[in-house]
Amino acid sequence: MFKDIKTVTVIGANGTLGKEVSGIFASFGDAKVYMVSRTLEKAEQARKNAALSVKAISVEENLIPKTYEDLEQCVKKSDLIFESVVEDFEIKKEIHELIDKYVNSESMIATGTSGLSINELANCYSEENKKNFIGMHFFNPPYSLTLCELIPSIYNKENRNFIEYIKQYLSDKLKRDVIEVNDEPAFLANKIGFKFMNEALQFAEKYQERGGIDYIDSILGCYTGRNMPPIETIDFVGLDVHKAIVDNIYEKAENTERKVSNYLSI
Length: 266
Known about the structure:
The chain is of the alpha/beta class and 266 residues long. The protein contains eleven helices and eight strands. The chain is globular. The two termini are 25 Å apart.
């Protein structure tokens, strides 16, 4: 049996996704959320932004600003630790090695990476803690976009009880549309989505004389059923995040034209 998730630590809570996910945990999940940021000032601002993101100022009482100096105590008190720092493997590795020092064997650990290897990040943990680590990729902004990719590692893929518990929590409690995918570069949705958005950028450059970004976004926006045009989406998630995901796909994927079915966990 797994204990209810009543207390969550979000590391990197002042980031674009970190603050939004904190709001989801606090509102839909009705959890106490430690929002760990580099400074208390950033954590306080993230707290306000998180409440606004879920359109519920009342959840502020569930959101607790913290800094990395408080990390040990936050992790020890949490049922779930969610890492949401910059999309850089070495930085994430440093954070997960810290979590491994503080986490208890009953807590669950997740990374919100957009496509870095879950298996490689799992290797930051002791044998006892590896089985409690999983990929949990929310889409931004999570209040509007309910898709969530769940990515098991080789260390917990056979532990269906753990995976099904997390899946049920995401679906029933956090109201996510959950798909379980394999640990491939950029997983499933980003492999397709960011390849499309990157090509949109290339076409914007090619057709600068016709309007460039505005021209391509007008064609590939509302006319194709998208709420947000592709290049506007890149701007929203951040050029640094976009570059990190595309670079990871280019460097790690053997063939980016593989069939979609290869990335589904079926």
